[in-house]
User: What shape does this take?
Amino acid sequence: MRKAYSMASLLYLGFFRQRGTYCNKFGINVVRSYSRFSSPKPPGPLMQYRKLIEQGKLQQDPNQEKVALALEDLLGRLEQYEKDMEEYHVNLANWEKNRENERRKLLTKEAELKQAGDVWTSVNKRRNKLIERWMLRRKPENIEPGVAPKGLYIYGNVGSGKTMLMDMFYCATEGVVKHRRRFHFHEAMLKINEHMHRLWKNQEEKKSLQSSISGWVMNLPFDSKVKEWVAAEEKYKEEVQMKNILPAVADKFLVDQQADQRGASVLCFDEIQTVDVFAIVALSGIVSRLLSTGTVLVATSNRAPWDLNQDGMQREIFQKLVAKLEEHCGMILIGSEIDYRRLIAERSIDQVHYFWPLDDNAVGQFEVMWCQVTNQLGGKITSDTIPVMFGRTLEVPRSCNGVARFTFDYLCGRPVGAADYIAVAQNYHTVFISDIPVMSMRIRDKARRFITLIDELYNHHCCLFCSAASSIDDLFQGTEEGTLFDLESLKQR
Assistant: This one.
């Protein structure tokens, strides 16, 4: 069985990066801010790609050039779409404001009738559907979003250049579209969790205030019984909204809602996966909502959409997600069999960053490297505490001016996860990890965490130094069981 997940990323992470530059997964520096160009717009992905070939930093690959050309074409169509969406968002905001005002007027009129006639039925037995009908009211044709250009779903083997090309496109959208976000899978799932938690928290806070009728209801010229009915209708509206929590999360996930920031939106989503039921349900609800409201998606994955869910979880929901992706994205296979990350890393490394096995010689070299790096940065070793999402913190045992050191067990042998690893990657440009064991199914939880850790260090372009029990190629050889397991399947379990 071929390893589905190459550890060439460990080699790649040996490259030091300069602060203020973006070093993509091929070790090529792309400046995030293009202020050094005389043109106000950054070059498109095709121009960036061909420039790197001319400079000898990339070798020409027809598969990559095909994707770069498709991304260049999409970028050109986004310029007009941005103008169309600016007008749409202004009209939409006005319509939503007017709709809410009219809803309250109708609710007040019905309350007046009840006040006059004193005819009551149990709210729980006979729910007035006014709120639901008004919330689901279709928008007029003149404030429907324009036809969004089809995005791209780029899939193919590890190291074939998917992320590099997507990032070239993302850089090129600066100044073209207002709302542009790039997420790696783990970061996106954490953001979704964070937004859901905030919405539920706000809902609970509203519930605690139900005993005191809301301000606008309190000021109505009705008796308390009618006011209670109006308050119940307001509560029903909130319940309907909470049943659609994923669309609500999607609306806050990407677009800045400020009135002066209207326009088109682009989401670049690196390494789409369906690792569990929550990922399938969340991605289906949020991606479907974003696509339906005009967001342009550019995504990468090792697998085609229809191959993402090999375990058959939530099949009906998953099939709807696939259908939505096929409707709104062009599918493009980048068919290279070359793992360029490994190729470039093997050609370019001028300093050892991976020390093995765990004998005196290798451990001694690892310690020498730690001393060299920290001495260059001032040499003062301290402990640190860094913030993690959801109000948590992580203790960093040893750090020095942007460099941190951990043992494998400290980062992967405890109940920590992607949020902790993102925090490490965001706070430190260089990370040392010691005592990495050979991984097998016996310690598969640690192996999963380690893969997630490498993903995040890799995604944030950190420099990594390791001391390990075996070579990179043998690190995931399940020697205790005598079998080699598929790391891509391990990530999905």
Observations:
- The longest helix spans residues 62-117.
- Confidence is low (pLDDT under 50) at residues 1-39, 120-127, 479-493.
- The CA atoms of residues 43 and 172 lie 6 Å apart.
